[in-house]
Design a protein that fits this description.
Nucleotidyltransferase, domain 5, FGGY carbohydrate kinase domain-containing protein, 3 domains, 21 helices, D-ribulokinase activity, 7-stranded mixed β-sheet, alpha/beta, 565 residues, 37% helix
Length: 565
């Protein structure tokens, strides 16, 4: 819906390319979303752990949603455009045509999605070098980063892809190029493309990694011209005539250097006004806040005035999200994806679908209501006192940084009804929150001083998800008045590029909005997790730290997964 107040108001377009959809928002100069739209995008999974997308499909979706949100708006009032996107690898040839990243030679599928784990052996070799540059990624490079994916392409698709490739883009940079025709790269994106840029270009990772991957001709395809821009910097001469026609926007409007989607979410929420909400971060430095972006996966964004090295947590990266501050980024590779997997894979899922539809509710709203019905007089968190989930179904990004870890469930019974589905749904959410606590405590131990969590993304719309994070971390959770914080973050970039605001800090201060709601821990539920779930997690972590063996010499996975007679 469009605002009725359009007179003398400037607008900025933010486009967010997530894992499964593209969204766009028209944001006014006060940080209010006045129109938004979304469009699903395709994901191919040709085999387990292989995930691919299409840059043509994504750009077409960008055009569809942008045309929808600007319909009826005076084009002269649209001042800037900003993109954010997942940290996925886009490959095109020397004429910028899509180039297949698969054995099938399907050129439409020219993106290796961020969550793709095909390069497991390649990342193991990179980490085996134990090079000092790895300290900027928590000591262990993730398979989700671009160097192992590039190495996989070189070793597996040398003739069909590697030798024909003209450019390797991270998806946010691809979108900026598509809009402007300029191949400049954004600073924060470069850290995830090949962290950290300045060290990587000059590092000696030892044979064969450096020589086979980062030879001079390859670097030219990664950062052509070595033009690396800070987020929000205006790119080239703005929107090209062709892109303007595609998007339905005025030719020449400012296009910003893009951001990774989680960084845009952090930018859109971390500066929110909390006055009057009695929060511990009020009148405290912005470094006391953690931005938690929760969607298909979750990212935990903490900033500091000086570099902090956190084991198993990416960074520190200077000015990657907020200019002038160092960024540490923790993460969980599957959160929304994990909840969906657990719920939809349960035998009672058809029953849930039918009952949710009959009551005109989403399946998650219905599950939350069902849990309220069966909890009786106890807090809902007590329902899973005998049911525990280990959430690393897609490996552990932070802080264990172990892609080989698997998920597990402890405490199953023979029940297969709707009650059982509701309980395992709850236990999965609690497991994700326990993972956040593990990341938070690791960051605190390294030197961060965080007292408040700011949450955005699709999962912020689930009150059970938010409350469990408050209960389990013991930290207050802040939700912004503006639900679409990631889109606001993308629009902040466009506003900064337009020149209407002097800096990202000043733009974000006005656009991040005010706190709309706060969640605090339910004392009884917090104590329950302190006494049951967290000791179990701590025991498993201890067994892993001690080499994966318990007192009887059994590895920790088998001890946890198999009941003893």
């Amino acid at each position: 819906m469009h605002s009725s107040k359009q007179d003398l108001v400037n607008y900025y377009v933010g486009i967010d390319v997530g894992t499964a959809s593209v969204r766009a928002a028209l944001v006014d100069q006060f940080g209010t979303v006045v129109a938004h739209a979304d469009q699903p995008i395709q994901i191919w999974e040709p085999q387990p752990d292989y995930y691919e997308q299409s840059s043509d499909d994504i750009w077409a979706a960008c055009c569809t949603v942008t045309k929808k949100i600007v319909c009826g708006i005076d084009a002269e009032r649209i001042r800037g455009l900003g993109f954010d996107a997942t940290c996925s690898l886009v490959v095109v040839d020397k004429q910028f045509r899509p180039l297949a990243v698969n054995y099938e030679g399907e050129h439409t599928r020219n993106i290796i999605l961020w969550m793709d784990h095909r390069a497991a052996s390649q990342v193991a070799r990179i980490n085996g070098t134990q090079h000092s540059v790895l300290s900027y990624v928590g000591g262990t490079m993730s398979v989700e980063m671009q160097p192992p994916k590039l190495l996989w392409i070189k070793e597996n698709l040398r003739k069909s892809c590697w030798e024909k490739a003209g450019y390797f883009f991270d998806l946010p940079d691809f979108l900026s190029w598509k809009a402007t025709g300029v191949t400049a790269r954004e600073l924060g994106v470069c850290f995830c493309l090949a962290p950290p840029c300045s060290s990587l270009w000059n590092c000696e990772w030892g044979d064969p990694i450096t020589l086979i991957l980062f030879a001079h001709h390859s670097l030219q395809r990664l950062t052509p011209g070595n033009q690396i821009l800070s987020p929000g910097t205006s790119v080239g001469n703005g929107l090209t005539p062709e892109a303007a026609k595609d998007l339905g926007l005025p030719c020449g409007i400012a296009v910003a250097a893009s951001l990774i989607d989680a960084h845009a979410g952090g930018l859109g929420i971390i500066g929110g006004d909390v006055k009057g909400h009695n929060l511990p971060c009020e009148n405290q430095p912005i470094t006391s806040r953690l931005a938690l972006i929760c969607g298909t996966s979750s990212c935990h964004m903490g900033i500091s005035e000086t570099p902090i090295y956190v084991p198993g947590v990416w960074g520190p990266y200077y000015s990657a999200m907020v200019p002038g501050f160092w960024l540490n980024e923790g993460g969980q590779s599957a959160t929304g994806k994990l909840i969906e997997h657990v719920v939809q894979g349960h035998v009672a899922f058809p029953e849930l679908q039918a009952k949710a539809a009959a009551s005109a509710q989403s399946i998650y709203t219905y599950l939350n209501s069902h849990l309220d019905l069966i909890k009786k007089s106890l807090p809902v968190g007590f329902l899973t006192v005998d049911l525990h989930v280990w959430p690393d179904f897609h490996g552990n990004r932070s802080p264990l940084a172990d892609l080989t870890l698997k998920g597990m469930v402890v405490g199953l019974t023979l029940s297969q009804g709707l009650d059982d589905l509701a309980l395992i749904y709850l236990a999965t959410i609690q497991a994700i929150a326990l993972g956040t606590r593990h990341i938070l405590e690791t960051m605190q131990a390294a030197g961060h001083r965080i007292n408040t969590l700011f949450l955005c993304g699709g999962l912020r719309k689930n009150p059970l998800f938010v409350q469990m994070h408050a209960d389990i971390t013991g930290k207050p959770i802040v939700l912004s008045q503006e639900v679409e914080s990631v889109l606001v973050g993308a629009a902040i970039l466009g506003a900064c590029a337009s020149g209407d605001f002097a800096s990202i800090q000043l733009t974000g201060k006005g656009a991040a909005g005010t706190a709309a709601a706060r969640y605090t821990a339910t004392l009884a539920s917090l104590q329950r997790h302190q006494q049951t779930s967290w000791p179990l997690i701590s025991l498993l972590l201890h067994l892993k730290k001690e080499g994966g063996h318990g007192e009887n010499g059994k590895n920790w996975e088998s001890c946890a997964a198999k009941p003893q007679a």
